[in-house]
Every structure is written in C-alpha cells, then in structure tokens.
C-alpha cells in the first residue's frame, strides 16, 4: 500500500483517486477550492461522475501539508492553466526526489512550456513523470477497460508509477519519451476542436477521418521537430488519444467544437460545456511552437482563426480543402517520373 495524494478535485483527478483506492492505496484528495472539498466530503460523489461513489476512508482536504508531506506519489491533476500556480504553492513542501506524476494536458501559452517542464521549473527537487492516453474520466471511474502510458526520466520511476496504477481494467505501459507523450496529449485537443466544429457544421465520417489522419500528421511533424519520438505519436498518446477525443461525446473539446460549428463563440461554448476546454488554451501555444520551429500546421492554424479571429467555420474548412496540392508522403520514390 502506498500513500498517494491527488492534487485537483476535478472529474479526472477523482476518477484516478477511485482507481488508486481500489488498488489498495491510501488516497488523499486535495483542492484549493473549499467548496469543492466540501462537496466531495459531504456527497462522496463528484457531480460530473454520477454513480461513482467515493469511499468513506478517502481523505479530502484543502490543507497543503496534509496533502504533500509523507506521500510516496503526488498526482498533479489540476487544469493546465493552474499548474504553475499550484506547483509554486506546494514547492517548499515537496521533499527531495518526491515523485510527482502530471496527468493534465496542455502547453503554457506565455512560455510554450509543457506542464512537466513547468513543474520541474517550480519544484526542481521533484522527480517528475507524466501519465496520458485515451482515458475519459467517465469511463475510468466506472472501471471500463482503459490503456495509458507513463513517461519518466528513469525506468525505475516509470515502473513504480506503473505498479501503483495498473490493474485488470487499467493497463499501463511505460516510456522514456516524456516530451512526445505531453505534446501528443496536448495538441490532440486542438484537433478535437476541429473535429467537433466539423460535426457542428453537419459534416460526416469522411471529414472526421480526414481531420484525424491529417491531424496526427501535424502533431507528429511538430513533435518530432521538438525532439519527441515518432513512435510515440503512433501510439496511445498520439493516434490513440486523438481518436477517442475526436470521436467521443465524453470529450469536452469535441463538444465545445460542435457548439462553435453551430455558431457559438468559444467563450459561450466553454460556458455551456461547464468544464475546462484545454484545446482553447493550447491552440495559441501550438501556433507559437509552429512559428518557433518553422512547422506548418494548417488544421491548427484554422482552428486558431475560428477561435480568435472570428473566422467563419465553414470558410475555414473550405480553405483547408483548397490549399495547394500536396504529396501525402514526401519520401516515397515514384517508380516512374
């Protein structure tokens, strides 16, 4: 049995808290929001995970020391926009080489840093890892079979986290490619907005397949330029996470995209979804990275135009379709010229 704290009382953090508790670990859930902790403590249920009952011996707290000190693993599950603030807040309490696994997805717009890079900057003494993959909280909380990947600098840390999370319905792979895992998990949210917009416009399966296929091409193009491994983008946090986020109504990014395709601005869509839509925060950062590494990201570029420049979604799709003619694969030679 390990002592684990989940930092963040959102649906994803709670789903993982339930999973870890079922695996026999002593689980504490921390949130900076007193109202959120009261709701969890009194109801033993998260409003976004109806029917997922929280056990009586799970601890709910807003006390930083209670959440951090003596824990073998800290699960960073706050929304990406609050990762830096939370990491800075707990930094002095984190012990040397204390393990932190980030399970949120996003890129900081102002610095273009991944979330693990932010945590390492704010808490340099920590041993920081990441966990990601096609894993909706609504399904993980109900024990529906799910597969994810843990990335860490050392194999020993990755295997330790793997051992804490893995069970008969939650399969965990390990990888040294932290950067690739985080980029795949973050950038797919932007493509999922595009897929949702296409759904909102009334387009069909052909359009969705095109967006998924060309979307993973864009993600891999940027990700490998930044140092991620191509194989990672062919795996769980690349094509796997992209498929589930573009196809499922559990996806807040797809749902927000649908509303945008139907005519709402992104702020209205986010309010209606009632959850953090990470793709909106990652979209500008993705374009910043594209400029920095001189990479073309036509789908992500059009998503930015729709979100922040009031471009008509149908016009964005038309511009994508009428781009200059291209080769699908550039390095394959022709038998005849």
Please describe the topology of this protein.
Layout: E1 3-7, H1 11-22, E2 26-30, H2 34-43, E3 59-61, H3 64-68, E4 73-76, H4 83-90, E5 99-102, H5 115-122, E6 127-132, H6 137-140, E7 146-151, H7 155-165, E8 170-175, H8 178-200, H9 205-226, H10 230-233, H11 236-247, H12 252-261, H13 266-273, H14 278-293, H15 298-308, H16 313-321
Multimeric organization: single chain
**Mean pLDDT across residues:** 95
H-E string = EHEHEHEHEHEHEHEHHHHHHHHH
Shape: globular
Tell me the fraction of residues in β-strands, as a range: 5-15%
Structural class: alpha/beta
The percent of residues in helical segments reads 40-55%
Radius of gyration: 20 Å
State the end-to-end distance. Answer: 65 Å
Contiguous uncertain segments of 5+ residues = none
| Number of alpha- plus pi-helical segments | 16
The spatial strand order of the largest sheet comes to 3-2-1-4-5-6-7-8
Query: What is the number of beta strands?
Result: 8
- Biggest sheet architecture: 8 strands, mixed
